[in-house]
Design goal:
Strand content of chain A: 15-25%
Structural class of chain B: alpha+beta
Number of helices of chain B: 6
Largest interface: A-B, 18 and 19 residues
Number of domains of chain A: 2
Strand order of the largest sheet of chain A: 4-10-9-8-7-5-6
CATH class of chain B: Alpha Beta
CATH superfamily of the largest domain in chain A: Type I PLP-dependent aspartate aminotransferase-like (Major domain)
Largest sheet of chain B: 3 strands, antiparallel
Distance between the termini of chain B: 28 Å
Strand content of chain B: 15-25%
Oligomer: heterodimer
């Protein structure tokens, strides 16, 4: 089913290997804006999908489609097997047990699931003793960072509003990293939520230190792994985080499916978020009991072809090898930083070096608003993201309204990095700023 | 390059040298509009001449791209001194052009320099940029005592 891209090494991918990978992605062959080859540098927003993922979804729908975990007919069995097989492969991909992986529609829903589960525990009525550990109240603290995507900020603001807990946050350094010295956790800190890799600055968080600090005060950790799982080897159990989330569509998989990881004992104790069919154990008019996780958190008929597609995506990434993916993207990132920093009037928002940093490269150009910059790039076929990238407080921290962001995936080439730098220079010429 | 259809020289001129920018006193109403997808902002004040039923001044501060800044500069040129009915007609015409996906032929008699934004209408992601200041103006005028006889402009505020 999948092609083996055997020439990848931990040193990265040679040009021929990247060309073979690109051949798996039909969309990368198209042209835009009057026959310009597409240079897709917006994988941080959503990645493109290889044929293997598209084929897996189509095959599932053409051969095995049925509602999973209900029905005793053959298709129901096959669909359930495909769905659960995807779960176990995805779990293995991130070092988790298969009962520690909950399918959600995206990472945003995953974070909300935890926040609402905690909120439901905080109501403190009808709780079993095990759920008590999640209960928040006035005086308790939820800690985030100034680096967060709105998805890992707003749900916690809302949880604090509902429970009376206080939101606190780590500040960000001038390099766009979490400033560990900016905040001290207290014994009232119950949750520490942070991004593994910033979607704006690309900074990789010191997960071990944050986990250690959180554990020292008995706080739970929630890791936003949206920008790390698609780009580097991630072993959630080894990282020691309590919860983590990532989205399918950012890792060569379908949209409409994401993953919440939770340590087994925590998922067992966390009250449900969405309730209804599928997630129950026993239902009576007076009340209900719930299935063990992950089913407890998968109410209703779930997405199926999307989960199967995400299974194919982790197979695809696994065949290339995440060490190889990371090495290749590190090469692209280093090249982008070098070429962009050489442009007069361009400032990178984030660490200037490629160490402890992923392939989201955000920048501003003197005298040219990010929107205008991206319009010139778009005219040359180069697709980047502009705006605040759902990290408005971070942009405010740097005193800027909007940045331009190039973000890489395994299918990008060094020629595309050059096209980016050429496009920035063309924009400067067009707007007469140099 | 297609892009020159969007960035007409006239737009770039207004961007580099905006007309009537800066917030001025006195004013009758102020509005602050934000484009939540990109964070661009405009603060816009309107001074009306109630006796004449006219727009006496429009002053503004913007944080944003060339399109949003040039657009509010053109707005200043087109609307200051106009009767409120006339201003509303121009606003409606500009909005119709901007939201017309390039299918609406702009009326230069009504829109003057505003026709330069016809190219922007071909780029749906930038329509909000072109309309940011105009929607702020609409909002500010609605907070004054002026009564508008013209039917409301069509389409939802961007």
């Amino acid at each position: 089913m999948t092609t083996v891209h055997g020439t990848g090494t931990t040193a990265g991918l040679d040009a021929a290997a990247v060309a073979r990978i690109r051949a798996d992605f039909p969309i990368l062959g198209r042209t835009v804006r009057e026959e310009k080859p597409l240079v897709y540098l917006d994988s941080g927003a959503t990645s493109q999908r290889p044929r293997q993922v598209l084929d897996a979804e189509r095959t599932f729908l053409e051969r095995h489609n049925a509602a999973v975990h209900r029905g005793a007919h053959q298709l129901a069995e096959e669909a359930t097997d495909a769905y659960e097989s995807a779960r176990s492969r995805i779990a293995a991909f991130v070092g988790a047990g298969e009962d520690e992986v909950v399918f959600v529609k995206n990472a945003t829903e995953g974070i909300n699931l935890v926040a609402y589960g905690v909120g439901n525990a905080s109501v403190r009525t009808g709780l079993d003793a095990a759920s008590e550990r999640f209960a928040l109240g006035p005086g308790d603290e939820v800690v985030v960072t100034e680096l967060e995507h709105h998805a890992n900020l707003v749900p916690w603001q809302e949880l604090c509003r509902r429970t009376g807990a206080t939101l606190r946050w780590y500040a960000v350094t001038d390099e766009g990293r979490i400033d560990l010295d900016s905040l001290e956790l207290s014994d009232r800190t119950k949750i520490v939520a942070f991004t593994h890799q910033s979607n704006v600055t690309g900074a990789v968080a010191p997960v071990a230190q944050l986990v250690e600090q959180a554990r020292a005060v008995g706080a739970l950790t929630v890791l936003d792994a949206c920008q790390s799982v698609p780009h580097m080897p991630v072993d959630l159990a080894a990282l020691g985080v309590d919860f983590a989330v990532f989205s399918g569509h950012k890792m060569l998989g379908p949209s409409g499916v994401g993953v919440l990881y939770g340590r087994r004992e925590l998922l067992e104790a966390l009250p449900p978020f969405l309730t209804g069919g599928s997630m129950i154990e026993l239902v009576r008019m007076e009340g209900s009991t719930y299935a063990p996780p992950p089913q407890k958190f998968e109410a209703g008929v779930p997405m199926t072809s999307q989960a199967v597609g995400l299974g194919a995506a982790v197979d695809y990434l696994g065949q290339i090898g995440m060490d190889t993916v990371a090495a290749h993207e590190a090469t692209l990132t280093a090249a982008a930083l070098e070429q962009l920093c050489a442009i007069d009037g361009l400032t990178v928002v984030g660490p200037p070096g490629a160490e402890l940093r992923g392939g989201a490269v955000s920048f501003v150009v003197d005298g040219i608003h990010a929107h205008d910059l991206s319009q010139v790039l778009d005219d040359r076929g180069v697709a980047i993201r502009v705006g605040h990238h759902c990290a408005w407080p971070l942009h405010r921290r740097f005193g800027i309204v909007a940045t331009a962001r190039a973000s890489f995936a395994v299918y990008n080439t060094t020629e595309e990095v050059e096209a980016l730098a050429d496009g920035v220079r063309a924009a400067q010429k067009f707007f007469g700023t140099v | 390059m297609q892009i020159q259809q969007m960035y007409q020289e006239l737009i770039l001129d207004h961007y580099r040298d905006p007309h009537g920018s800066g917030l001025r006193e006195p004013y009758d109403a102020e509005s602050h509009h934000v484009n939540p997808t990109c964070g661009d902002e405009v603060t816009l004040r309107v001074k009306v001449d109630t006796a004449a039923g006219a727009i006496a001044d429009v002053s503004y501060e913007t944080l944003g791209c060339s399109i949003s800044q040039a657009s509010v500069s053109v707005l200043h040129d087109l609307l200051v001194g106009k009767s409120i009915d006339e201003a509303w007609r121009i606003l409606g015409s500009f909005q119709e052009m901007a939201q017309g996906r390039g299918q609406v032929e702009p009326d230069e008699e009504v829109l003057g320099d505003g026709v330069a934004f016809a190219g922007v209408a071909r780029y749906p992601a930038r329509v909000k940029c072109a309309l940011l200041g105009w929607m702020a103006f609409k909002d500010a005028v609605s907070r004054t005592d002026l009564t508008i006889d013209m039917p409301d402009t069509e389409g939802s505020p961007a």
